[in-house]
Design brief:
Elements lengths: L2 E7 L3 E8 L4 E9 L12 E2 L1 H16 L7 E8 L5 E3 L9 E2 L7 H10 L3 H8 L8 H11 L1 H6 L2 E3 L1 H10 L4 E2 H4 L5 E2 L4 E2 L1 H7 L3 H4 L3 E2 L4 E4 L2 H7 L6 E3 L2 E2 H8 L8 E5 L3 E5 L13 E4 L5 E7 L3 H10 L4 H10 L8 E3 L16 E3 L8 H25 L7 E4 L6 H11 L3 E3 L5 H18 L6 H4 L15 H20 L1 H11 L1
Parallel strand pairs: 1-5, 5-14, 5-15, 9-12, 16-22, 22-23
Antiparallel strand pairs: 1-2, 2-3, 4-7, 6-8, 10-11, 13-14, 16-17, 17-19, 18-19, 20-21
Length: 504
């Protein structure tokens, strides 16, 4: 047996799987929850990094107890993208981490974009726009709003990098996750001296050295190894952001494959051999965690929205699906903007949830439930259409995340996207991706030409029983509603700003 542990540290929980690379099967898995910090002002979304490490320790010990620990060879970590974990000179956390879904940094985005010469200049210099969720504006926010904490800052890490640090004691960052910081030129895969200068010249000394995605972040420290019941020669791979690891876990490691993740956030992405730069900055020109590129769109409110609606009616997931199926495609004309925490694509950081089209016939559980699933999916379809305009077209979409488990939702996805949708055999794509990456990284130390497909084949397999084909009648209906949602998003932006002022 050759066992590899894959970790997915998400916004709501940390998951662990053990992949037996010889049998190509997941033989153990578990998860542990963690929560957001409550009571923060509108737009602020934060977590304690210590909660992540506690959950990490718990899930690794649990899965190790289920297998032959002597056969474990490595650990690969997926973490929520972007974010900002500030550490002092001793490696201690200075304050809670600001997350990908934190939109409190809108003003800092404006400041940095202006300093760098405007939006077009930023895209030329970085390949990505500077958005509130990214790390760069969060660092500037700390400098402008918490100068005492900024004075302590000596190390900048992303969430998954902090977990690597917890395991190995090493400061490390790979190109994939780093490309979502707005601190790196994604074409050259180098830190941008101009962005660093615009924030603070000292930042150049506080960022880790960038490494390729097939690198080894280190080995387990003696303390951690003893805690887990593992040896100190267990390697920890470079890891990556959850989307980058999800790409590996769904076999999205070569051109032609498109993945959609329906989790707390929604993402759609595809592998590319070269950077795909969106002149409008709506599609992120990220690097993959397999040394390629990963053009990606992200929406901020997916299962957060559906779970809120499910909770409202007191349904379990099966009952919620049943309610959705009782309403017709298009939910009787209801159109939802699911902007509970603002929105990233399209960029509406001040946004809030809105629904139009209510009447006496559709103001009921079934129609509201269906409109929620449709609304978040059309939000993602906005980005899929943008990807298509850049030459990245989908013939099939592999879906993962909590939403992929719903038969009713998968059919809605197929009808809105207009292409077949299929789920994976192993639905914990990011965690599985972490396990695959560390096996690949280990092999690359021996043979630098070892291909990632050697490890994804047979593991990242689709589940044909879940395949849904688009209904032509429904496709036409959703195209009409998509137009309404797109117009509504533009029309309400000034209203959103006024509403945010009332909440501040």
């Amino acid at each position: 047996m050759s066992l590899y542990i894959g970790i997915d540290s998400g916004t709501q929980s940390t998951k662990a799987v053990v992949l037996d690379m010889k049998s190509r099967q997941v033989i153990a898995e578990t998860r542990a929850p963690h929560k957001l910090i409550t009571g923060l002002p509108a737009g602020h979304m934060e977590q304690h990094p210590q909660d992540w490490t506690k959950a990490l320790d718990r899930v690794i010990k649990q899965v190790v107890a289920k297998v032959d620990a002597s056969q474990v060879r490595g650990i690969g970590i997926s973490g929520q993208q972007h974010g900002f974990v500030p550490l002092d000179a001793k490696g201690s956390v200075i304050r809670p981490a600001k997350l990908w879904c934190d939109t409190s940094t809108s003003e800092e985005c404006v400041i940095l974009t202006k300093k760098l010469g405007g939006e077009k200049a930023v895209l030329r210099k970085l390949g990505v726009a500077i958005l509130p969720g990214f790390t760069a504006p969060k660092i500037l926010w700390l400098k402008r709003n918490e100068p005492a904490n900024f004075k302590k800052l000596r190390h900048v890490l992303l969430p998954h990098d902090y977990l690597n640090y917890h395991l190995t004691g090493n400061y490390f960052m790979e190109h994939g996750d780093a490309s979502g910081t707005a601190l790196m030129d994604v074409r050259k895969r180098k830190w941008s001296a101009e962005v660093i200068k615009a924030i603070d010249p000292r930042l150049a000394d506080w960022l880790p050295q960038l490494s390729s995605s097939d690198s080894i972040a280190g080995t387990l420290t003696p303390k951690i190894a003893k805690k887990y019941g593992l040896s100190t020669d267990i390697i920890v791979s470079a890891g990556g952001g959850d989307n980058m690891m999800g790409a590996i876990g769904t076999g999205n490691v070569k051109p032609g494959v498109v993945t959609a993740s329906f989790g707390t956030s929604g993402t759609i992405y595809a592998y590319a051999d070269k950077a795909v730069i969106d002149p409008r900055g709506e599609i992120a020109a990220f690097c993959s965690s397999t040394n390629g590129w990963l053009p990606l769109l992200c929406t901020m409110n997916v299962t957060t929205m559906t779970e809120q609606m499910r909770w409202l009616f007191g349904n379990d997931h099966k009952a919620f699906d049943k309610a959705v199926s009782k309403a017709p495609a298009g939910a009787g004309g209801l159109v939802l903007l699911p902007y509970l925490a603002g929105e990233r694509t399209p960029n509406v950081p001040d946004g809030s949830g809105a629904m139009i089209g209510l009447n006496a016939d559709n103001f009921n559980e079934a129609h509201l439930a269906r409109a929620t699933m449709e609304g978040v999916t059309m939000g993602m379809n906005y980005g899929l259409q943008r990807l298509a305009s850049l030459g990245v077209k989908a013939k099939e979409i592999r879906v993962t995340g909590g939403g992929a488990k719903s038969p009713a939702w998968r059919q809605i996805m197929a009808d809105i996207f207009g292409v077949p949708v299929v789920a994976m055999v192993e639905d914990e794509g990011a965690a599985v991706g972490g396990a695959i990456q560390v096996a690949w990284a280990e092999a690359r130390q021996i043979n630098s030409k070892a291909k990632i497909t050697r490890f994804t084949d047979g593991v990242a397999a689709v589940n044909e029983k879940t395949r849904c084909k688009p209904n032509k009648k429904n496709v036409a209906r959703y195209r009409e509603l998509q137009g309404v949602q797109d117009v509504l998003s533009l029309a309400l932006r000034d209203v959103f700003k006024l509403q945010r002022m009332l909440n501040d």
